Amino acid sequence: EPEVTQTPSHQVTQMGQEVILRCVPISNHLYFYWYRQILGQKVEFLVSFYNNEISEKSEIFDDQFSVERPDGSNFTLKIRSTKLEDSAMYFCASSLDRGQGYGYTFGSGTRLTVV
Amino acid sequence: DQQVKQNSPSLSVQEGRISILNCDYTNSMFDYFLWYKKYPAEGPTFLISISSIKDKNEDGRFTVFLNKSAKHLSLHIVPSQPGDSAVYFCAASAYNAGNMLTFGGGTRLMVKP
After folding, report:
1. Which residues of chain B have pLDDT under 70?
2. What is residue A86's three-state secondary structure?
3. CB-based contact B43 A100, cutoff 8 Å
4. CA neighbor of A21 nearest in space, from A68, A83, A85
């Protein structure tokens, strides 16, 4: 069964450093997303991406965040200057269609720990 | 911002019995509702969805019920199996918000053999 692959599974970084979280969405999917879950809290939407541009983003997705699809297969989330509160599980997801009834396929997540 | 709430953080059920997981929402613009299941160290897995024009959708052992007037949905699993033990999230989306999902806090289901 096709799956969304995320690397690394766990990343530890120092506060103020830049991190790039990587995702390989399902190959024929057209819509891409990042969500995050801070420990003990809800899964929160960060950003959606379609046709090489951001289609929606949340208030969380401020100037320190950026997304890119550099080569037609990878989808990356960059955090420019990490803060302690960025520590969370980051999930990438993709979907074939914008149709709301179709669930996304999520990756297994990257646990980001900022120290 | 508690637009989607799952008031029961955990639920314990005997194998073979029915599991009922509940979810409430406040935003009347939501028009699609989804349930996801999550195991530790994995991402959420899509289970079943329902459009606001329906009040029931069934897929095997899983049935989702929607009560629009009460802004309430529920997921029924029958019969429950030990492999169903996981965290279940309900999520909602609104057409005018693209397909961004707003998640509830999750309910941990434990199915005892």
Report:
1. 1
2. helix
3. no
4. A68
